[in-house]
Amino acid sequence: PNVFWLGRSVVAVGSKDWGEVYAGREYSAAYTVALNADPTYWSYVSQLGSAYTYANYTPVAATVEASNIRWANTVGYKSPTIAGVSAEVAAALGEGTRSNATSGNLQYKNGPVWLGAAFDRLDSSTHLALAAGGYDFGVVQAKASVSRAKGGLNGDATAYSVSALVPLSFGRTYVMYGKLNPATNLDSQMIGVGLQYDLSKRTLLYTNLGTAKRDGLTRTTAIDFGVKHTF
Question: How many helices and strands in the chain, by DSSP H and E?
Fold first, then answer.
């Protein structure tokens, strides 16, 4: 696709009190909620990722938009957080064969509680809705999500996920389960586990295992390990 930057390229202005107005190529507001429903933030082979927190939603072909989580020509607003509540709304102007798209989210985060709901909409036959929530019990952080996709390249689907993250003295460990029910009835399920060891505030060691099975196909299992540094 003829996209100057395939990733994010955003100009924004705002303040803590008034929120933020932004324009450019930015993530869908729905992606923010889906990302936070995954303890790995869509990373590693153990991730829930797009399939299990985003219902495998892909509104347009890669030759049109090059991403199922970003929209070009976006103008949006992120509100300040007031009493734990925040919201985001965005519109992406159509270009070429793509029509206008809209997205939004509403989140509540206060103490141990996190709740989120979001949507992404290309047109009446292609859209996504999702809801997620979590509670930090101290010894474990539990999260769950449900997402429903309509239309798009991968068709209708509903996805569910649950996860638990346990803080450790040296890092954290997590386990997650996801299920995807597409309209084809070729359901898939996955289990992921991982462990992170903090070397410093910005550097960690990680290892993960992910295993998934789709109806009619053999099981796929993967393992990763490495070092991650945040700049």
Answer: 2, 13
Q: What is the pLDDT of residues 168-214, one digit of tens each?
A: 999 999 999 999 999 998 999 999 999 999 999 999 999 999 999 99
CA distance 168 to 198: 10
pLDDT in tens, 26-59: 999 999 999 999 999 999 999 999 999 999 999 8
In a domain, 190, yes or no: yes
Q: How many residues would you count in the chain?
A: 231
Rounded to the nearest 10°, the torsion over CA 162, 165, 166, 172 is 150
Query: Residue 74 contacts by C-beta under 8 Å, 6 or more apart in sequence?
Result: 10, 22, 23, 24, 25, 26, 90, 91, 92, 93
pLDDT band at 4 (very low <50, low <70, confident <90, very high): low
Looking at the 3D structure of the chain, how many domains does it have? 1
In a domain, 171, yes or no: yes
CATH number for the domain spanning 42: value is: 2.40.160.10
| DSSP 8-state assignment for residue 81 | P
